[in-house]
Amino acid sequence: xxQADPAVNRTRHSTMASSSxxxxxxxxxxxxxxxxxxxxxxxxxxxxxxxxxxxxxxxxTNIVLPYATIEATYDSGSxxxxxxxxxxTMNWGCPYLSCQGQCNATVPADISYNPALSxxxxxxxxxxTIYGYGGGLSKMYLSDKRLTDTLTFGNTFGDTVTVPDVDxxxxxxxxxxxxxxxxxxxxxxxxxxxxxVAAYVHDPTGEAANTQGPSLRETLFQSGRIKARTQSLWxxxxxxxxxxxxxxxxxxxxxxxxDTSKYTGPLVRIxxxxxxxxxxxxxxxxxxxxxxxxxxxxEMQFDxxxxxxxxxxxxxxxxxxxxxxxxxxxxAFFNATGLRENPARGSxxxxxxxxxxxxxxxxxxxxxxxxxxxxxxxxxxxxxIPMTLYHRYQDPQDTELGWCTMSILLYGCGMSRTFxxxxxxxxxxxxxxxxxxxxxxxxxxxxxxxxxxxxRIP
Length: 458
What we know:
28 strands, 2 domains, Peptidase_aspartic_dom_sf, 37% strand, PEPTIDASE_A1, Cathepsin D, subunit A, domain 1, Aspartic peptidase domain-containing protein, 3-stranded mixed beta sheet, mainly beta, 6-stranded mixed barrel
């Protein structure tokens, strides 16, 4: 049950709030700390997020426990929140759906939540749940319980926020659809926790797919700690002197409000698409893409290799690893962008492209411009992604050629972690709206500007 005192404590580099701030919060009946409150009384929870450099790194937040730090994917492509319980198992070895593999590995204790070590947990409840993720449900997490606890969230730059009365599930088993030759080595990577921030759905008619939960955003809304089912997400601009893609980026996922100081140009509504099965997720139409904003858009197609790709349902997903495009003419795409396929990886779906030179030779001024369909007539929604931001990890096969790995797939349709690094995103689930603007402009580690926060998309 939510406690009567719903305040949220936020610190920056372990700096305690001033005594005057504590007095103000005390008068408000809040816990001591620096609560994120906007002008006109808009309450928000500012979640510190980051995007690490590496193959499996996504937009994430750290769950900071006395005995463990757990990197949780901050996932705009799902709604549920769960962690691994201690002594959980990860299974792999069979590539088919719901097929038991021959390989097992214990999830390490230092990325697991141990209920026995928490003095603040409550409401431990037996609930069996299956959470499915990845293309073709390639990852299935099994959970048998839910509980409530106070959790501290942080990023890699020292920002933290402590949130009481958080509901979450504990998973004990993960099955991955990964073929194995019999050696059970190496152990595949996997998400250590998933904090879904997509829309919460509860449709009593059963026509829409309901959220299984728990949902952090819905917990905050139902307890009155935020006043609207709105959110915004941005990452700060890269630090100078380091290749922009090859560094950790910091940012904020703001729950309950929209910080209008964290983007440049207009914040433009784009339509939400998708059917009843995906009403919780942020789908929209495929954008037109140009190189450096000039020339004709690179033409995209609706079918690739005999498999349908619905270009009216492109997911904005901070938990995805790479941008997904579906060009009619791949060679024309290569010619326009300068990107290539590494012959060692092969071609087709699932294979990231590469820049055919070292990463430091990617032109700093080259970008891809996305031009989206807008929800309102007469508006324009254009955003630019610097080409250097597509480099999020380095494949040894590219290193052998002196090339630079780029997180771009020529199959499907979706915007990923790279999109989140350059684009400000806002959603108002109460009104079924979402909007984008050019992001990546705030200074690294800069906090929310309370005077610039609004409750709804302006």
